[in-house]
Amino acid sequence: MKTIYLDNNATTAIAPEVYEAMIPYLTELYGNPSSMHTFGGQLHKKIEEARSKVAVLINATPDEIIFTSCGTESDNTAIMSAAEAFPHKKHIITTKVEHPAVLNFCRRLARKNYRITYLPVDSLGRLDMELLYKSLDDDTAVVSIMYANNETGVIFPIKEIAQTLRERNILFHTDAVQVAGKLPIDVKDLGVDMLSLSGHKIHAPKGVGIIYVRKGVRFNPYIIGGHQEKGRRGGTENVASIIALSKACELAKRSLDIEMNHVARLRDKLEKGLLENCPDCRVNGDRNNRLPNTTNISFEFVEGEAILLRLNEYGICASSGSACTSGSLEPSHVLRAMGVPFTAIHGSIRFSLSRYNTEEEIDIVIDVTKQIIKDLRNISPYGKGLSALKN
Amino acid sequence: MWEYSDKLKELFLHPKNIGEIENPDAVGEVGNIVCGDALKLTLSIDKETQKITDAKFQTFGCASAIASSSALTEMIIGKTLEEARRITNKDIAEYLGGLPDEKMHCSVMGKEALDAAIADYKGLEKPIHAEERIICKCFDVSEEKIKKVALENHLTTVEEITNYTKAGGGCGTCIPDIEALLKEIWSLKAIPKAPTTPKKLTNLQKIALIQDIIEREIRPKLQSDGGDLELIDIEGNKVTVALRAMCLSCPMGDITIKGIQERLREFVSPDIIVEAQ
């Protein structure tokens, strides 16, 4: 059975070109870039070349790029660095819909006497900008707000926020993990101080990410060790993955057009097909301001894990905000923050596409999903609508 | 991804007895759509033989909830009400080839629907909801349900209660209440102090008593500190145990063993000797 992979916000396939590019560094070129001998030392140059290629994707200068092990490390680093840069400031602002890498790190700091403001969103997942500006005060050390949401794809007005924060002289970090490769990112135009990216969301392997730190921003390393990354991130460089990431960034830059047009068209086709063929379903999030690859649909009266495991039988991969799919009994914090009714959260499915998906795949997914929803509603006591139960 | 058994997967993908019996003799409805799972069970019952001649279900929920419901109907068709009443949630889980810990509440839902249907058939009044003390407001779980499930499944920790009833799995504010409830349940169940002139126990009685005290008195205490204990063997007065979990790395192991010995001497027999494996 062929896999139909529509879970690209979770992780992506390694692009064949990326795989090719990293192989030499997993085999013969195994040296340590810090070594004095040519065998190792030559890799240092390769890393610097990679840094330049990554910088191009987001219009940064190479020395503004620090390689990390993942998006989570980048997020943790950004917030901790800002907190340490202003030790007397004890207030952090973020949102209720952030990735756990930011949310749980803030919760940890809350236990260390930090005051955290978690900004709410409206029913379409849009940020309450007025409240953001009202929450700023002289005690605010850093604001960390994601560029686009991983569950709904809703995009936040990062440029606008950055402008205000620059005027107020408050550090601003954005988690752009979901945006990279899907929309153009220009850090100079955005005006952010720090930005996180992850390799495995843009067709590089897992285990590599970057944090962009704008020149002039005070930075404190999070992982303490050797002099790697100019002392800004200790630990021997993950050479093969760094090379892979730079290749993936090159490809991402070239493929932006495909992502924004071809992928968006497939996503719209999928969304339209499902909405037309399955009664009682709804799209979660602001459809006018979303990533081109993401759709989050709630199918009423059925439960997400059941939908996913039936899709799984056809090799179709997606994910759900249902409680049953998480380790805990809590359904999606993002959909809850948007005030999506619990009944709709339990049946929410996220499809996230990539440039490797095809028209035929989307046709199959619409057909299969339609039948699964029908079958599961047939099993559900609410299948005929909520009113049928209590009468 | 959950580790589901092949049997569970099969019943989830191809559930049996889906639907609703027209003019059923008994109906059991539990759960609700807000909490994430719900089950409606309808039964046909032969008045003379008291046998369940047919059972159908409708379930809103995850794979294990659907499979548990299907399993339940298969298990009860052909049984008398009395036989069906004796089916426990553990039996349902076993029928499915086991359930992941976090999914045990699906088997409990099956058992609850069956109980509700039997009560409905017998014309028993359902307990008035308002009078129940709701412990977990997120998942609408009553004190009575937690007590019942804890006793039936021998649950001693909050985590187990959450796995079996969902209580405590939402906002978490009721966790102290669940802890208090567990304390109450298991201290009530604790064996009364041994009479001053103990009766001579038979070997079988002694083994049963030792097992009981270890399960009800000793393990919950160790588990609350992250440790655990396994009873390995009982030979005459010699009780062999093995320390588990955090107890393994605890430097106080010897003292723990001494404490267990004192406990057993107090409740079972003054000549008990406890040894670690």
In a nutshell, what does this entry contain?
By secondary structure, chain A is α/β, with parallel strands linked by helices. Chain A has 13 helices and 13 strands. In chain A, helix 2 runs parallel beside helix 8 (239-277) and helix 3 (71-85) runs parallel beside helix 4 (100-110).
Task: Tell me about this structure.
The complex is a heterodimer of chains A (391) and B (277). With 391 residues, chain A is an alpha/beta fold. Chain A folds into two domains: 134 residues, Aspartate Aminotransferase, domain 1; 237 residues, Type I PLP-dependent aspartate aminotransferase-like (Major domain) (Aspartate Aminotransferase, domain 2, 3-Layer(aba) Sandwich). Helices cover 42% and strands 14% of the residues of chain A. Chain A is built from 13 helices and 13 strands. Chain A has a seven-stranded mixed sheet with strand order 2-8-7-6-5-3-4, with helices on both faces. Chain A has a four-stranded antiparallel sheet with strand order 9-10-13-12. The longest helix of chain A has 39 residues. Chain B is an alpha+beta fold and 277 residues long.
Beta strand count of chain A:
13
Shape of chain B: elongated
Q: Using only CA atoms, what is the Rg of chain B?
A: 22 Å
Tally of distinct domains of chain B: 3
**Total individual domains of chain A:** 2
The whole-number mean of residue pLDDT values of chain A reads 95
Which strand order does the major sheet of chain B show? 1-2-3
Beta-strand percentage of chain B?
A: 15-25%
Number of helices of chain B: 11
